[in-house]
């Protein structure tokens, strides 16, 4: 989980000058932690950047 405060290391943005020209070249993922009454669950979204297709 994310913690508040200043980051110890800032990762470079590797896609800054990348030209996306074909499917399956770049994918993105987001994972969210969702509290529930009896525990928790994770919601995960995966997307192909070039075609905006969500899995």
Strand content: 35-45%
Instruction: Please count the helical segments.
Output: 0
The helix/strand order is: EEE
Main structural class: mainly beta
Structure explained in plain terms:
- With 55 residues, this protein is mainly beta.
- It has a domain at 26-55.
- Helices cover 0% and strands 40% of the residues.
- It contains no helices and 3 strands.
- The protein has strands at residues 27-36, 39-48, 53-54.
- Strand 1 (27-36) and strand 2 (39-48) form a beta hairpin.
- The two termini are 23 Å apart.
What is the topological layout?
Layout: E1 27-36, E2 39-48, E3 53-54
Antiparallel strand pairs: 1-2, 2-3
Summed up:
This protein is mainly β. It is 0% helix and 40% strand.
Task: List key phrases describing it.
mainly beta
């Amino acid at each position: 989980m994310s913690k508040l405060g200043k980051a110890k290391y800032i990762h470079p943005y590797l896609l800054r000058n990348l030209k996306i020209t074909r499917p399956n070249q770049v994918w993105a993922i987001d994972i969210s932690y969702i509290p529930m009454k009896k525990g928790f669950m994770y919601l995960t979204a995966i997307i192909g950047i070039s075609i905006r297709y969500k899995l």
